[in-house]
Design goal:
Oligomer: single chain
Structural class: mainly alpha
Mean pLDDT: 93
CATH architecture: Orthogonal Bundle
Order of helices and strands: HHHH
Low-confidence stretches: none
Shape: globular
């Protein structure tokens, strides 16, 4: 799955959380944030430090893979 925006990341977290039958409150407890914050994150409206995002992804079983973008000269 490719994601390009915060909204895409949030939607991926929401879909995976639901597949695993986790509530927002359960996910929040696992990561140490509020249920409201999880709700905002899933809608692409929460700002977070990178480590918190990685912890959230790990809690639902997702991981990040970095690849060069198409057309980049890097």
């Amino acid at each position: 799955m490719q994601v390009f925006t915060a909204t895409d990341v949030g939607a991926a977290v929401r879909a995976t959380r639901r597949e695993k039958n986790l509530s927002q409150a359960q996910l929040a407890d696992r990561v140490g944030v509020s249920r409201e914050w999880v709700s905002r994150f899933e809608r692409g409206r929460a700002r977070a430090e990178l480590q918190l995002v990685l912890d959230l992804l790990d809690a639902v079983g997702l991981q990040v893979a970095l690849e060069p973008g198409e057309g980049d000269d890097a």
